[in-house]
Specification:
Layout lengths: L5 H12 L3 H23 L4 H17 L3 H12 L5 H12 L4
Length: about 100
Amino acid sequence: MAVYDPGALDAALAAAVGDDPTLVAELRSAFMDSAAAHIDAMSNARNPADWQAAAYRLKGLAASFGATRLMDVAEQAATAPAGDAEAIRTATRAISRFGN
């Protein structure tokens, strides 16, 4: 099982925007909201193309924030069959480890 470091997200955000805890918190919130939206899109995908697009959007979001483990989870989801419940659970758990 992959090891997740939720602190890495805060470190990446701080490196990008400096030592402004308010801005870091806002960006963290935007990350979490966007990740949840991508999971919703995967859950509601009506065909393999929509599923794969949502998974790759999640991967892109993770890449933008330096969340390498989430990138791996999203890549695995993109190659899973559309609607794969285990892929959704795994991605949801990976995101939840970043906290709120």
